[in-house]
Amino acid sequence: MKRSLLLFLFIISCVISYAQTIRNCATMEQDSINRLKYPGIGTLNDFENALNKKIKEMDVLRKGWRTEAVTITIPIIVHVVHVGEAVGTGLNLSQAQVQAQIDVLNEDYRKKVGTPGFNSNPVGADIGIEFCLSPVDQNGNPMTEPGIDRIKGVNATWSQPQIEATLKPQTIWNPNLFFNVWTVKFGGGSANLLGYAQFPDQSGLQGLNDDQNATSATTDGVVIQYSSFGSADKGNFPVMQAPYNKGRTLSHETGHWLGLRHIWGDGLCGNDYVDDTPQAHTENRGCPVTKLSCDGVNFEMPQNYMDYSDDACMNIFTLGQKERIVAVLELSPRRKAVVAADLCNTNVSAPPVANFTSNKQNVLRGGEVVFTDLSSNFPSTWLWTFEGGDPSTSNLQNPHVKYVNPGTFKVTLVATNSKGSSDPVVIESYITVSEEGLCGTVTNFKATYTPSLLTLKDFAVDSAGYLTGHNGVGTKAVSEVFGNSLGYSYISGVNIKFAKVYSTSEDATVTVTVWNARGIQGGPGSVIEQKTVLLKQIQEDVANNQATSITFDRETPVFSSPYHVGIELTYEGDTLAIESSANGEATNATSWFKNVHDVWRQFTIARGANIAMNIAPIVGMNPSVQVSSSKLFINPGETVTLDAHGASIFLWNSTDNSIQNLSGPQITVRPVQTTTYVTTGSGIELCNSSAVTTIFVREGEITGMYETNTEDVTVYPNPGTNSLNIRFQNAYRGDVQVQVRSILNQAVRAVSIGKSQDLFDTTIDTSAIATGVYIIAVKTGDSYSYSKWIKN
Fold first, then answer.
1. Is 335 helix (H, G, I), strand (E, B) or coil?
2. Sign of the dihedral through C-alpha 271, 199, 12, 14
3. Cis bond leading into 719, ω under 30°?
4. Which of 14, 220, 250, 221 is nearest to 109 (CA)?
5. What DSSP assignment string belongs to 450-490?
6. CA 682 from chain center: how many Å?
7. Are 510 and 575 in contact (CB under 8 A)?
8. 412 CB-near residues (< 8 Å, 6+ apart)
9. How many Cα atoms within 13 Å fall on the side-chain side of residue 573?
10. Is 253 annotated as catalytic?
11. How far is CA 745 from its chain centroid?
12. Contact present, 578 and 496 (Cβ < 8 Å)
């Protein structure tokens, strides 16, 4: 097929139903999930572009006779996940069954004569890759069972999300050294899965931060249904089930791990980006051999390992698929590293050849870099030197290093084994440390700008209203895009400077929104976070000529990628506009608006407005204190719940002194006047250790503070000072429990007084109680009475 560079975003499931004997595969489905989860690895189209370029480079070298055929070896570690069975029974596959699977893999990838992996097709290829069960573990020690890591799992069955979130990250061996394979029994929503692989990452793409795809390294490998791992042709393995019992599931999924697509291109007459595979209408089942391809001339190739045919039918990789695999081994960093490590060859006949990689090369000031040793010939000691790093030297195999000063710094590694030491590997300017710290505020404004409130008429639009807010053409939202070139992971809040606010309703609000930048032409895409803000708060800030500070309810991930921040506008008698620069003071086209037809447009294109809006996200690599509030505008005495997130320890204080150094992640308050609550977090390293939340209170009688006084209790004087009197009369005899409770409903004073006659009249000392509003709770038997009391 032609190598067109079309983007195919699809969801394909790799499923097997034994009752229906149907094979499918979840590799491309998982790839779509990974690319959404880790946008830094780029799109599938990015991968195809980079791979196409690499194949063209290889074609040039081949024509110039500058390449030679070599056999590549790849070490496998098979994580056999079981539930405690004896070896060789149930999920705990025998060493013989594992070896049978590796034998099939080598027959298929080497097109071995005399085996089911051989074919005489003129485009059939010997891929030139041999797989071995790794003879050594992660530390270079010989393994009792080569290449087998037996894991007693906590689950009898595993769903795909459980595998990705828990099993893989907790059990994976270094994917720069090993091809990781897991055998499991699928369950839950994945009960019909046969297997899936992680598609390779690419390298060298423009604009990508080197550390953005690092997290996907914790899941790199292949997962196979245990009953399809091995080969019934090579032994008596009762757990294996036909027609997928000849080992071709791993051959198929390993093809994905090496960058091959399904032969039908995951669409009707789709594209697998390989020229010599006939264009298939869709996947094949069983083994049809006379089905015409999409061109109506050639036959489809159900024998190809990247189809869905039965195991007994499969026996071909093509020369074009080989070309693609070889390019992937050059392009994908972890695939290239696995080959270079050469763990299948354990003969230590020479000193190491030092080599290393790191999870990032561009780092924010104060950030940490994790280095990974990739030296050959099994070194036993290491000597690292980190210019500008802390520590400056290390003897660990894979050290963690902090960089606190900006600049560019070299890294040096010497590795040693029993045969001697390597030559030093010195990479100049390997680490670049930004002037920016791990926490900061970003803006698209220049150092100097002219604060402006621009109207539509300023841009020859015959309608009333403001360019960056409410107007007569019905603008539905405005946003500012932030390129995030420094790769910040989180946005904890934003400061927005408004230039105009008016409302006919005292409890009117506006929605502050964060979008990803994956919309058309980099415009706003999906909503990441939203926060409701009272216009009353904005009115106060505008009156004081200050920005409105908004703290989001949670630490909002921006995935080290570009994002938008702005406001969504409704038209209910409110008028709101964000301050901007003067026209012409911004030239990067960072300001966007959503028109009445729900289409996002750039101001510079649609209005001729070269502006930036005064929106400053608060970003960081560390968490910040976040606070959510159940209500923002209340009647006096209504209950409000405040929840804090982001730290491990929280202290609360309030401007009305009703809260003083109260600890805990959640408080319930009942303010009777507009009150600001300050939340301070600690216990971990934070970007912003405090957050401020203002609860606005309407004027009026206090409500929600107490229940009906069923006992006709009199509390006086009210307001009072250093004492209060409690008086009531009834037939009750026994102890009377009296509590003075704060508006958090916490007892600050409690007494128990005996009652032996109808009249109860007592005085309670309140000199040690702070000024404020309190609830007086009186319990007589099973009856309660509540009264409000104010201390001046």
1. helix
2. positive
3. yes
4. 250
5. --B--BGGGGT--S-BBTTB-BTT---EEEEEE--TT---E
6. 24
7. no
8. 384, 385, 424, 425, 426, 427
9. 6
10. yes
11. 39
12. yes
User: What is the chain's length?
Assistant: 792
C-beta separation of 318 from 123 below 8 A: yes
SS3 35: helix
Peptide bond into 243 cis (omega under 30): yes
Give the burial class of 339: count Cβ atoms within 10 A of its Cβ; 0-12 exposed, 13-18 middle, 19 or more buried.
middle
Strands (E), 487-568: 490-496, 498-502, 509-516, 527-534, 548-557, 563-568
Strands 690-697 and 633-634: parallel
CA distance 51 to 199: 13
Q: Report phi then psi at 106, rounded to 5.
A: -70, -35
**pLDDT (tens digit per residue) in 346-381:** 877 789 999 998 888 888 998 889 998 988 888 999
Residue-wise DSSP of 234-253: GS--TT--TTS-SSHHHHHH
Tell me how far CA of residue 778 lies from CA of 429, 709, 715, in angstroms.
74, 10, 10
Q: Which of 449, 531, 452, 466 is nearest to 495 (CA)?
A: 531
Of the candidates 721, 494, 704, 481, the residue with the CA atom closest to the CA atom of residue 616: 494
pTM: 0.60
CA distance 177 to 686: 35
Active-site entry in 29, 164, 253, 283? 253
* pLDDT tens by residue, 582-618: 999 987 899 999 999 999 999 999 999 999 999 999 9
Using a 10 angstrom Cβ sphere, with 0-12 exposed, 13-18 middle and 19 or more buried, the burial of residue 520 is: exposed
Closest CA to 11 of 39, 42, 35: 35
Query: pLDDT tens-digit profile of 413-435?
Result: 999 998 999 999 999 999 999 88
